[in-house]
Amino acid sequence: MQKILGYMRKAIQNYRLITDGDRILVGVSGGKDSLVLLDGLVLLRRFIGIDYDVVAVTLDMGFTNDKMDFTPIVEHCEKLGVEYHVIKTQIAEIVFDVRKEPSPCSLCARMRRGALHDAANDLGCNKVALGHNYDDAVETFVMNLFTEGRIGCFAPSTYLTHKKVTVIRPLVLAPEKEIRRAARKNELPVVKSVCPADGHTNRQRTKDFLADMERSDHGFKDRLFGAMQRANVDGWGGINWTPPANKD
Fold first, then answer.
1. Tens digits of per-residue pLDDT, 167-188?
2. Dist CA 120 CA 130 (whole Å)
3. Contact 210, 170 (CB under 8 A)
4. Which helix (H) or strand (E) holds 24?
């Protein structure tokens, strides 16, 4: 986990994600990213010099075709000494049965975010930590550019005035391959998603496109990410960012 902790520490400092007294809700889906994020935040408390609390929350999506077993996550949180809650929702029913969404990911994501923000208010948390990583940021930038025709991405940190909650993404500088390696080496209890749309999304197609480009043009993703930082797209330049000097 040493590399992951280094990436997280840099992100927390660059984007001022965590301060003393924060009570952070970690959205734990059961995937590798959220579990590595949870472990990383627990480990960082020991030496980063910031006093904060961690609460783990899993949303039970309510899929009727299969019941996800969260027991391994319960046991893992007990080992970490982290407060853990499973919150039942009807998100799957609304998205797939009631609305019958042909492209369900956008609505599902909005509903999941809303449920996590409400849970943060209920549990007295002022921040919600999500497991988006470096690759997710580049993919989102490309999706917005080519699908919506706009330049934008999610931000490292976003304050939601209507919920009075700040959403943070401490893994945004960590490459997915390093997260995958950390999850495997630390034998984290990854729970397989039962969502029928898993692996058949626009994000997966974008991921495949970027992988192809990276194979033929090494450093392609790094250059995209660098462009986001240099242009300070949605705050990616960091707290000390200043516009580049005009050389003309």
1. 999 999 999 999 999 999 999 9
2. 12
3. no
4. strand 22-27
